[in-house]
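Page 47, continued from p. 46.
Same chain as before, 507 aa.
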Amino acid sequence: MDLSKPLIDDMSLSVQKHIADFCRKGSKNCSVLLVGDYMLDHYVNGSVERISPEAPVPVVKFQNEKFMPGGAGNVIANLVGLGTRVYALGRLGEDTYGEKLRAIFRSLGVDTSFFYSKGNTTLKTRIIGDKRQQILRLDNDSIMSPSEKEIQSIIKNFRMIIRKDKIGCLLISDYAKGFCSDELCSRLIQISRKEGIPVFIDPKKNNWECYSGSFLITPNIRELSAAVGTNLANEDDEIEKNARSVISKYKIENVLVTRSEKGSSLVSAGMVKHERSSAVEVYDVSGAGDTMISAVAAFYTGGAGIPECVRIANIASQIVVGKLGTYAIKKADLMEYTGRARNCRPQEKDKKNQHKTADFKLADEICRKLREKGKSIVFTNGCFDIIHAGHIKLITKAKGFGDFLIVGLNSDSSVKRIKGDKRPVNSEDSRAKVLEALEAVDLIVIFDQDTPMELIKMIGPDVLVKGGDYRKEEIVGLEFAKSVRIVPLEKGFSTTGIINKIGWSDE
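Result:
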């Protein structure tokens, strides 16, 4: 998949801004609570050199294998990749595959204490041959509904979570493996409505009665057809008509229909929007629906409106289908797509709307992608409280030492500890915005420590740059950089000097 070409040429500035703001701040103020059917995806990769003499089938020579979370587990991976806090409720098998799923979720930072263990884990094995071609899929399903006692326990945990944290939405990922029973879905939706929590549904049932009262539901054409009892053509008018039918019947606020090559359609009582897909190279469609609902839920909890969420989710899904396997979308993928984190600077048309500030996790992902492309990373840091000619010289020189310049910016609390209670003059957000406007700066990372040691260690820059008031042996983090460059100071310029000149002192 070629990300150098826009998937949607006319992507609006508002959507770009939502992506950039979300990738910078994430969903810090609320979480997504996920209920669903959890599975394990098993990928066996090999080469095909001959046809079996026993039957007309290819012989796959084993090379490697990998395990990835599937079903609602892939929704977890997508939400975490987007920087969203996730609480998960569900069943895991009492087997090695269930333990493997627990380990994967723990590695993603998800609390596994709200899962209960029972039965076997649903396992889907895919055999992948040359040229990324799926040759065979083998499903070992485990279908089991929760008992009344288990439903009571799930609801108890549900109430515990919503008391503990601000939940932006409940997401039910129904894969028809039994856990999302009619009774459980109905009761969770009722509780959520009373608590003012919007409910997002990825449906698999033919009868949507148990989904009644939900905020948004995301069927594909086949699932919507099953819900209305007739085979639907993939045409705008027919999709809109039948979506409005289920809205009226089941008191659902929004229906988002995924339509394969035709993109998606968002229908509500007073609105319809058809979001078209662009032609991209498709390697694997598995997990695209998970990405769709994950992105909608994540960006909605982050403050975007539903139409903007849908457009962003459409972009995310198109990125995912260009990957092999159940790939989980990441913030870095969206940043790269919008042109803000791609190995250099934003596109010309976006210069008035730059958002280059990232957190530690996103910066780490961006650095990894840059190294994969053979790009050199330059790092410098400072308070940059009042930008002056000396700062501009440092940043401009630093940019010339490599392909991609990352600027570490002291947080407000960090500046205060270093410079005194009256500093900084400008807030970290204001200082970051000024740095974003500088063409030489590719990425800004705000750090809260007194020194950028941890940030430098994480980045491992090819070149570490400091001003001429430092001796090499005094430079923090030099052991984590391949080389160090010192830029001579611009005489007569300092923030303290400017403050003193205008008659305002730290003293």
